[in-house]
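Complex record, two chains
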Amino acid sequence: MRELARKWIRLDQRRYGASETEDRSGVEFHLVVSPYDLPDAVRGFFDRERKRFIIEFKYISPEETTESRVDAHVSVHTGRRSRRLYRIDVDVTSLGAEQVVLRVKSAVDALAASSPARLPADNASVVRHVLADKSPELVAAFAG
Amino acid sequence: MMRFRAVSRAYGALGRARGLCILASASAAAAVKADPVVVSAKVAPLLGSLVSWSQPQTWWLSPSLLGLGALISAAQRGIGDPSKWRVVHHVLEEFQEHIFGDENGELHEHRVTLFKHVRWRMSLRGAPWTGWLVPVERSGNTTHHSVTYFKAPDEADKLEGVAGIAWNSRKAVEVELLPDLNAIGCTEEHFQDYAKRTRSNLEKAKAKKFRARSYYAIPVEVKGERWGALVIDSRSSTLKKKKIRDQQHFVLSFLSKTLEGL
C-alpha cells in the first residue's frame, strides 16, 4: 500500500444524469437528475497515518458536512443540508482491495436504504453508478 | 430587471445614509472639545449654535448614530450588492446566447430567468406565507415587465409552474411541444392543455404575453439548501438540451457561489 497523489478523476455528468417520466396530478413530466446531485469528480486515496482508505466526491456547490458511522469499519461524511454523500472512510486494517470495494458498496446501499433521513435517492443512485464505473481507478490508489 | 433597478437605488440610498450617520457621529464626538464661541466667531454662527446644542447630547447621540449606521449596513446586506446582481445578469445573458445564439428569430424570444424562493409575498392568489418563487433576474433587456410568480409551498400538489416542480422535486424539468397559443385557430382546448402541462392557472395562460412553447427548469441551490430555480423558456417548440447541459454546470456553479448572502 502506498499513498498516491490525491488526484481528482473528472466525471462526465451526461453519463450519470438519468431521466424519468413522472406523473404529477395526471400530467406526465420529464424529470432529470439535478446537476447538484451529480458529482463533478471523485478520488480515492490512502491516509497512511489513520490507516483509512478515503473516497471523496466533489459537487457544484460544496457545503458543510457531518460525519456518521455506518458500521465498525466505515464512516461517511454527508451534506448537512442536502444529505449528499461527500466522503467515505474505510478502516483498512487487515482488509484487502476487494474487501474495501465491497465495504464501500455495502455502505452506500445501507445509506440509501436505511431511512428517509439518509442519502437522497438520486444521489445514492449516481454514487453507485460512479463507484461501479470508477472502482478500478479508485482502488488502484489503495492496491497500488 | 425591475428588481435590479429598485435594488440598485435602495442600495445606493442606504449607502449614503450610512455614510451620513458615520460622519454625523464622528462630528458630534469631535465637537465635544470645540469652543462654541470660537466656532461662532471664526466659522459660522449657525455651526456654533449646533456645537453648543450637541455637546450635552454627545454621550447618547454619537453611539446612537453609529448604531443606526450598523443597522443600515445590515439592511444593505439584506437586499444584496447590486454589483453581484449585475454579474448574475451577465451570466444569464451568456447562457441565453450560448443556447439560442444560432436559433432563427430574435434572441428575446428565448429567455433565461432566475427565480428566488421566498417564504412571504403579498398576493391575491394565496396566503402570503404559502411560499413563492419570484423572478429576480432575467437575460436580455426586453420582456422585463413580466412579473410572473409561482406558488411554491412544500406540498407537491399545490405547486405552480415548471419552476415550482423543479424547486420542489430538486430535479430538472423539461416540457416541450406545447401548443402554439399565438396561432390562428387556437382553441379553448389548447389553452387548457397548455395550462395543464405547465402547471399554471388557465386565466394566467390566457393573459400571458410571452407564450413559450418549451421550458427547462433547473433547481438552484446555495450551500446545499434550495434557493430557487433557473428557468429557460423559448418560443421554439423544442429545446437544445445538449447545449443547456453543456453549460449548466458552469452556470449553476457560478450562481451558487455568487448568490451566497443574496
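Note: Chain A has one domain: 9-143.
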